[in-house]
Amino acid sequence: MRSLLLQALLRGRAVLQRPEDDPVMLDEAAQALAVSGRRRLGRSLAIREIDSGSCNGCELEINALNNPVYDIERFGLKFVASPRHADILLVTGPVTWNMLEAVKRAYNATPEPKWVIAAGDCAINCGVFAGSAACVGPVSSVIPVDLHVPGCPPEPIRILQALLALVDGPEVACPK
Amino acid sequence: MSHALSGTLIDRARAEAPDPDGFGRVAVSESEWIALARSCAEGEHDLTALWIDRVRARMALTSRDRAEKVIASIDCGDGRYPSVGLYHAPAIRLERAMRDLYGVEPEGLPDERGWLDHGVWPESYGRGGAPRHEPYRFLAAEGQGLHQIPVGPIHAGIIEPGHFRFTANGETVVRLEERLGYAHKGIESLFTGKTIEDAAKLAARVSGDSTVAYSFAFARAVEAAAGIQVPRRAVYLRGIMAEVERIAHHINDVGAICNDASAVAVHAHCTLLREKILQFCGRCFGHRLMMDRIIPGGIAADLGGGGVTELRRLLDECERDFEDAVRAYDGMPSIQDRTVNTGRLSPALASNFGAGGFVGRASGRNFDCRRDAAYPPYGGLSFAVPLRREGDVNARTWIRIEEVGQSIGLIRSLLELLEPGPLRSELPIASACEGAALVEAFRGDVFVSLRLSSDGNVAHCHIRDASCFQWPLLEAAIEGNIVADFPLCNKSFNCSYSGHDM
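ok -> structure tokens follow
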């Protein structure tokens, strides 16, 4: 462990600078967040990730948000274990029939105010699984979606931009 | 008796259909089918896959000495065929899944319950009939002081959906029963009718973490069916991508196991290393996970001169930095306390189930497709296949640690071989054809069996993830362990939900 610490001193920080604001995300976030909602969030977001039937590619990139390069907790963003603790549901995958009930229950268990981000092409339009009779449809066909992050899978930086737009983007995009 | 019979079948398959993909194909009678099922149970063959293709039930088998591979087919046009699971337990979940999807009855199957079908599918899908919404009958565990712990389908972490039903006595797990299928997306029926190009994209998304391996396996199945050669540069780059994918996951999961044993700094160190690998892939192959980079006929992304230099540097860095993590793992008795003797999988079970990947190799099953079903570019390359017999979390971790070193060596050899040349061959599909492929993903062997129709589109495609034979073994490995050690056991298996659920 000592050598790890020494290396850390020698090599400097791996952490990425805060990414630029994404104008599309800001617009979407501004619409999603009324002023009152933004106030209640108070620059901190608790995120519950839900895999509604993804191929697990999105999960790999969402997990990467916790590595030392993205280190999302420095922005007040934190993944939580229960929807009851969450402000945000970050949902991936086309919603399968077998996950439908669980997704609905998680949504209903999340206290208001709450927002839903559909992460990845499958969550937005079922991606390559479009047309399957084993899938209900995109996330928006099951629960209301506020923000969309396209990509297959979306790169961590894109997901981070979306989350940042929710945390403090609307300040810029939606002046009082 | 059954030995002789199945031996004869293999001779027949070899004589009748010496297919270029190495699989002999043979139609069998009911008694021959049952003899093959018995031969699997007796350890003469490994069951590689079992599926329904329209009016035929099909079973891929690999002989114990790995020399022979056979796909046996039996007619099931009347909606039934003799169950393999009746004789050979590893087939049970495969047959339950196929019954759910196609309504074909494996006669004698000792489990009546649905597997992928949770009773909520629309009438238009699966075996038909209105949604039943009936509760799942978990297997019983009875005794004084037993209690149940239901977990999932949504888990606490950022992972895929699945349900675990623990029955525990205090902290000790008496029985774990998995209920999977939540991520079932109907991949097999989606394949039918797709162009090869679109089907390749679908194959790449069966299990995102093994996207390179799946693209590789699907491409090889197409190439076997169409009888085409892939240019050398493409072959070598395929090998490089497959090994980079393996290294990224092994490093990440060794870190994740340390995390579950509370060595959080080691985990952070490993996730950083993995991120560097993914960033390299993003820069040099155009996609962080290298999705859709291997395509039927060749590859879709080249590695430029700068990329080669960068990859060499990355390998040096991985070797040096991963060594630090390994030293930390090996040097912290508090981690060993959690991993040694935890989640033991017996060599007998690993062998019976034909467990692939590090799960099998940590329990004495000496099998690696790259060596034992050698496919380009691995045929001419030298590498070791690490093997242990203890079968605990620690052994699975060490297999993965050792495989990182082997993969780094493989990539270095492949980089030496790399020379300029074309990246893909044309795919002339003139008539209906069939091909199969086995490819070693990071977690074990991926099997693809593909039929193409004369218009060049997919007639049927069956894909079997390594997880199908590993998930049931996790239930065995956790027995007698404490509930708190389940995350360690689970992570040390790291089965795919999506790959299993299809």
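Chain B has a mean pLDDT of 94.
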